[in-house]
């Protein structure tokens, strides 16, 4: 006997395959003990609720702990629920209230609409909103807008409270820098880590850069910790190591989604002296800052300038892209993996001018030996392709037909010039020929795009055309480079392997 499903109003036979597949979503806004109890209470509630209802079958409970509701991006369980809905694993989602689902009105409505397109409805228990009803979206928008306003107000109150504490010097930061521990709301020095911090400062003042310091820490001093160049620079510029605190270096603007950004003068900063025990002497800290300023003048890249070889050079050994490196004698390129992890890359650094010279040499070799390197390769590829296709090559047939039509067009032109045919007949016949040529060229282009072998042959022809249209190079031509080169690989001995767009590779030895 059929019954009416009280949740959706749809008839059901009560058979197992007709049960509604239910997903329940829970979220708590912080990970404190009280909220964690609330989280477990929500999970238990849905388990009991669905167990008592014989028209439903629980598929999954999606639960995000300690995650803000103002943005969906950070909620992994919410995103998993949306994926399951798209994959048709759910029929209905149960949520305790709109504030648990989202506090961003726009994202809330977008998520509900996306679920609707997948045939999934959402029921908000406390708000008694069912997206299966036609008039629910407007109510949902109003509720989610209130929830968004509440979240924004709470965020603003929290920020105001934090700024007041910063201003009167009572603020206690939540993040603790390396070398300290937070004990009773006070930064306390961690002796072993503090010793490493002092060593970093001394190494930098002795002339060593962040890359050298990084290698030393990874291989000798603290290999079990995760180090990076940016982390070392952060230690070298953090005023907390001299016992002072600069607060509000970053802030969260009251714009959804709530994301932290650097404070570049939008809000006041608060500098407090002697807030905790120091690790580094103030003289050393100031000396590092002066030295950094001097080095930045020597090695600082031109502001906003993108170098030509950016993203075009790869290490053959590890596959990492080469990055630019500015030295006193000019621009160099080095493997991005250098200094990034324990498995250091030993690929050589290359001067920018050296890579340019190598390309000039490559191009002139290609031009000098064009017949052997390019023309004969094209011929061999065509012969091989014809042999594989048993001579039934559609592109060759089209080429032959195009040649025949072109000859006909020339013939009609000669007959018209000699006065054998009049202008009307000439125009009629050439129009027919031009249309046939146009159609054949379209077919040819389509076949080339579908045929990888023919693509390669076509690229070889394009390479040949560039070489024939260009004189021997005496200086770098960036347009020519971009038209024929795809990537440059660097071998361990410094050999440059130029991979051309026609997929041929040519090594140029370092000299």
Describe what you observe in this structure:
The chain is an alpha+beta fold. The protein has helices spanning 33-51, 76-86, 98-101, 105-117, 136-168, 191-205, 210-221, 229-237, 282-299, 352-368, 370-388, 394-417, 423-450, 452-468, 478-484; strands at residues 3-4, 11-12, 20-27, 56-64, 92-95, 121-124, 129-130, 180-183, 186-189, 245-247, 250-251, 261-262, 270-272, 313-315, 322-327, 330-335, 350-351, 485-490, 496-500, 505-508. It has a five-stranded mixed sheet with strand order 4-3-5-6-7, with helices on both faces. Strands 14-18-19-20 form a four-stranded mixed sheet. The longest helix has 33 residues, at 136-168. It contains 15 helices and 20 strands.
Feature tags:
alpha+beta; five-stranded mixed sheet; disordered N terminus; flat; four-stranded mixed sheet; 16% strand; 511 residues
Strand order of the largest sheet: 4-3-5-6-7
Distance between the termini: 89 Å
Mass-distribution shape? flat
Please outline the major beta sheet. Answer: 5 strands, mixed
Strand content: 15-25%
Report Rg: 35 Å
Q: Treating each run of at least 4 consecutive H or I residues as one helix, how many helices?
A: 15
Mean pLDDT: 77
Uncertain spans: 1-16
What is the count of β-strands? 20
Q: By helix and strand content, what is the structural category?
A: alpha+beta
Range of helix content? 40-55%
């Amino acid at each position: 006997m059929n019954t009416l499903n009280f949740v959706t109003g749809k008839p059901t036979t009560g058979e197992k395959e007709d049960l509604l597949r239910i997903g329940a979503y829970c979220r708590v806004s912080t990970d404190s003990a009280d909220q964690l109890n609330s989280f477990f209470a929500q999970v238990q509630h849905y388990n009991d609720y669905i167990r008592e209802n014989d028209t439903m079958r629980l598929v999954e409970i999606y639960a995000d702990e300690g995650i803000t509701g103002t943005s969906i991006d950070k909620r992994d369980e919410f995103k998993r629920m949306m994926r399951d809905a798209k994959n048709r694993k759910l029929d209905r989602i149960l949520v305790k209230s709109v504030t648990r689902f989202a506090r961003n009105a726009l994202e809330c409505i977008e998520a509900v609409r996306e679920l609707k397109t997948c045939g999934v409805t959402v029921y908000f228990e406390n708000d008694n909103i069912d997206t299966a009803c036609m008039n629910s979206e407007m109510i949902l928008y109003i509720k989610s807008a209130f929830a968004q306003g509440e979240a924004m107000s709470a965020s603003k109150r929290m920020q105001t409270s934090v700024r007041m504490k910063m201003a009167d010097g009572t603020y206690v930061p939540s993040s603790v820098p390396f070398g300290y521990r937070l004990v009773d709301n006070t930064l306390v020095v961690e002796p072993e880590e503090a010793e490493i911090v002092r060593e970093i400062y001394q190494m930098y003042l002795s002339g060593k850069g962040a890359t050298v310091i990084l290698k030393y820490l990874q291989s000798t001093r603290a290999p079990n910790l995760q180090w990076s160049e940016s982390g070392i620079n952060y230690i070298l510029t953090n005023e907390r190591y001299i016992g002072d605190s600069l607060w509000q270096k970053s802030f969260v603007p009251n714009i959804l989604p709530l994301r932290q950004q650097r404070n570049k003068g939008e809000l006041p900063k608060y500098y407090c002296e002697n807030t905790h025990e120091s690790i580094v002497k103030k003289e050393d800290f100031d000396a590092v800052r002066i030295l950094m300023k001097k080095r930045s003048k020597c090695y600082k890249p031109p502001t906003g300038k993108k170098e030509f070889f950016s993203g075009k050079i790869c290490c053959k050994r590890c596959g990492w892209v080469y990055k630019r490196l500015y030295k006193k004698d000019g621009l160099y390129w080095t493997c991005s993996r250098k200094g990034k992890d324990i498995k250091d890359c030993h690929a050589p650094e290359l001067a920018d001018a050296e890579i340019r010279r190598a390309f000039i040499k490559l191009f002139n070799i290609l031009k000098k030996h064009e017949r052997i390197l390019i023309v004969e390769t094209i011929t061999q590829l065509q012969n091989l392709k014809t042999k594989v296709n048993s001579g039934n090559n559609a592109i060759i047939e089209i080429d032959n037909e195009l040649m025949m039509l072109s000859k006909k067009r020339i013939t009609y032109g000669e007959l018209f010039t000699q006065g054998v045919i009049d202008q009307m007949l000439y125009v009629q016949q050439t129009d027919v020929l031009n249309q046939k040529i146009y159609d054949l060229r379209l077919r040819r282009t389509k076949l080339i795009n579908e045929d990888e072998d023919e693509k390669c042959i076509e690229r070889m022809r394009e390479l040949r055309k560039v070489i024939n249209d260009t004189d021997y190079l005496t200086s770098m031509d960036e347009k020519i480079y971009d038209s024929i080169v795809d990537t440059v690989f660097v071998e361990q001995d410094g050999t440059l392997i130029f991979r051309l767009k026609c997929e041929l590779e040519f090594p140029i030895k370092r000299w």
